[in-house]
Amino acid sequence: MKNSTKPSITKLVNRFDNELKAMLLEDLKNVRSAKNQLIDSIKQSISAKGKGLSAA
Predict the structure, then answer these.
(1) Quick check: 19 pLDDT over 60?
(2) Is the overall model pTM greater than 0.70, yes or no?
(3) Which residue among 19, 28, 36, 55 is least packed, with the fewest CB closer than 10 Å?
(4) What is the dihedral of CA 7, 10, 14, 15, to 10 degrees?
């Protein structure tokens, strides 16, 4: 008969914390990337409108 050892609660909680932290960091990277893309898009739009106005 095999002896199976159950992981301790602390180890399980730490593993969960690490996995959650990794997921949240990935989400944060995605949000920052989307924010930067939006800012760049707004800058390009403003720049295009500014060029159109200066030509008039």
Answers:
(1) yes
(2) no
(3) 55
(4) 10
